[in-house]
Specification:
- By secondary structure, the chain is an alpha/beta fold.
- The protein contains 15 helices and 15 strands.
- The longest helix is centred in the last third of the chain and has 20 residues.
- The two termini are 19 Å apart.
- Bound molecules: pyridoxal-5'-phosphate (PLP).
- Pyridoxal-5'-phosphate binds next to helix 4.
Length: 396
C-alpha cells in the first residue's frame, strides 16, 4: 500500500466505517453470534450463557458485586441507578458538564429528587474541590451524579478523586454514568469505591444498542428497601432474585446476550489492560495527527473513548461530518447544542484497524481541503499520513 492510495485501498477493505462514540464497528465474531438461530431464554443452553456473562461482566466492572442487565439503552440503566436508591425529595448533586449531565439532572427531577446542579463549562472537567465545598453545604445529599466521560464534550472527570470525597460519607452515594467509559479505560468500581456504575452495550462493549448494565456497592444496596421511588421494570430486587436462580426476571435479549458472550471472550483473550491500551493508542494517534491538520482539542482532560476536536477556522463541524459520510462512507459525530458546528467527535471504541484510522485522518484532511478551498495541500496531508503510519508502527 503506497502513501497515496491508502484511502482507496482501505475503502475496498472497509465499506463503511462507524467511528462514532457509540454505536461502533462490530467484531466479525460478534456479527457471527448475532446471526445465530433464535433459542428460547428459558433453556439450559441459554442458562449457561447467562451464567457466563454475569460472571464475565464482573471482571469488566472490576467488582465482586453482582452486575445486572436490563434490556434497555444506557439511559434505562441510568434510571435504574436512581430509582433503586432514591426516594422522592432526596437531595442529589448533579455534575452537569454537557448533554448527559443534563439528562441525569432531568431524570432525577422527573423522579422527584431535589436536584442541585453543579454546572461546569463545556470542555472542562469538574474540580473536586468544588464538590468538596458543595458536600459541606449539603451534608444531607443522598447522591452525587457524574459522568466518567461526558460524551458530548469528550471530557473525562476525576472519578477517583470524587469517590475519595464521597466514600467516607455514610449516607451519600456516588453514582457514575460510565456509558462511554466502562471497558474503555481503567475504572475499578470496588477499588475506587464507586456506589453505582452503569454501562451501555453499544460503546466499549462493542455490541449493538439495547442492553444496559448496572452494579451497586454494598453501601448502595442498603438503600434498595428504603428507596420509595415507584419502580417495576427497573426494580433490581426482582432481578437479583431471578439471577440467584440462574434466570432473568423478564425475557432476555437472547441475541445480544450471546453476542456479549462473544465480546467477553474476546476481552478475556486479550485482557483488560490490552483493551484499554488499544483504545488509548487510537485516541493518542487521533489527537496527535488531527492537530497536524489544523484541528485542536476541545476537552481540557480528553477521554480515551472519544476525541472532541474543534474544527479549523472557516470550517463547520456539521458540514465536515456530513461530507465525510457522503463522500467517504465514514460516520463520526458533530457537536451538540452550544458545540454544534464548532466540533466533531470521533469514537475510539469497538473494532477498528489501523488502516481505518489512517483513512479517517486522510479523509478528514481531504474534507478540510474541500471546505478550506485548497489551503491545505495534498503534500501536507500525505506527509501527515506518512508520519502517522510510522507512529502507528513504532507504537504497537
Ligand atoms: C455518557 C452517556 N450517558 C448516557 C448516554 C445515553 O445512552 P443511550 O443513548 O444508550 O440511552 C450516552 C449515549 O451516548 C452517553 O454517552
Amino acid at each position: 500500500m503506497t502513501k497515496h492510495n491508502i484511502a482507496e485501498n482501505a475503502a475496498k477493505q472497509y465499506d463503511y466505517s462507524l467511528l462514532a462514540p457509540g454505536p461502533v464497528n462490530l467484531h466479525p465474531r460478534v456479527r457471527q453470534a448475532l446471526s445465530l438461530p433464535m433459542i428460547h431464554h428459558r433453556t439450559p443452553e441459554f442458562d449457561k450463557i447467562l451464567a457466563r456473562v454475569l460472571l464475565g461482566l464482573k471482571k469488566i466492572f472490576q467488582t465482586e458485586q453482582a452486575v445486572y442487565m436490563h434490556s434497555s439503552t444506557g439511559s434505562g440503566g441510568m434510571e435504574s441507578l436512581l430509582v433503586n436508591v432514591l426516594s422522592p425529595g432526596d437531595k442529589v448533586i448533579t455534575i452537569v458538564s454537557g448533554k448527559f449531565g443534563e439528562r441525569w439532572s432531568q431524570m432525577a427531577s422527573a423522579i422527584g429528587a431535589q436536584v442541585i446542579d453543579h454546572n461546569v463549562p463545556w470542555g472542562e472537567a469538574v474540580r473536586s474541590d468544588d464538590i468538596r465545598t458543595l458536600l459541606k453545604q449539603h451534608p444531607d445529599a443522598r447522591a452525587v451524579l457524574c459522568q466518567a466521560c461526558e460524551t458530548s464534550t469528550g471530557v473525562v472527570h476525576p472519578i477517583q478523586e470524587l469517590a475519595n470525597l464521597i466514600a467516607p460519607l455514610p449516607k451519600t452515594l456516588f453514582l457514575v454514568d460510565a456509558i462511554t467509559a466502562l471497558g474503555a479505560f481503567h475504572l475499578p468500581m470496588d477499588q475506587w469505591k464507586i456506589d453505582g456504575l452503569v454501562a451501555g452495550s453499544q460503546k466499549a462493549l462493542m455490541l449493538p444498542t439495547g442492553l444496559s448494565f448496572v452494579s451497586f456497592s454494598k453501601k448502595a444496596e442498603a438503600f434498595f428497601d428504603q428507596a420509595t421511588t415507584p419502580r417495576y421494570y427497573f426494580d433490581i430486587r426482582r432481578e437479583k432474585k431471578a439471577n440467584s436462580t440462574g434466570e432473568t426476571f423478564f425475557s432476555s435479549s437472547v441475541s445480544l446476550v450471546r453476542a456479549l458472550d462473544a465480546v467477553l471472550n474476546l476481552i478475556e483473550e486479550q485482557g483488560l489492560p490490552q483493551l484499554f491500551h488499544s483504545i488509548h493508542r487510537r485516541a493518542e494517534a487521533t489527537r496527535i495527527f488531527s492537530q497536524k491538520l489544523g484541528f485542536s482539542l476541545y476537552a481540557k482532560t480528553p477521554s480515551d473513548s472519544v476525541t472532541a476536536l474543534v474544527v479549523p477556522a472557516g470550517t463547520d463541524g456539521q458540514k465536515i461530518r456530513l461530507y465525510l459520510e457522503e463522500n467517504y462512507n465514514i460516520t463520526i459525530m458533530g457537536g451538540q447544542d452550544q458545540a454544534k458546528g464548532k466540533i466533531i467527535r470521533i469514537g475510539h471504541m469497538g473494532y477498528i484497524h489501523d488502516e481505518e484510522l489512517l483513512r479517517l485522518i486522510e479523509c478528514l484532511g481531504k474534507t478540510c481541503q474541500h471546505f478550506m478551498h485548497q489551503s491545505l495541500s495534498d503534500a501536507h496531508i500525505q506527509s501527515v499520513i506518512g508520519e502517522m503510519k510510522s507512529w502507528l508502527e513504532t507504537h504497537p
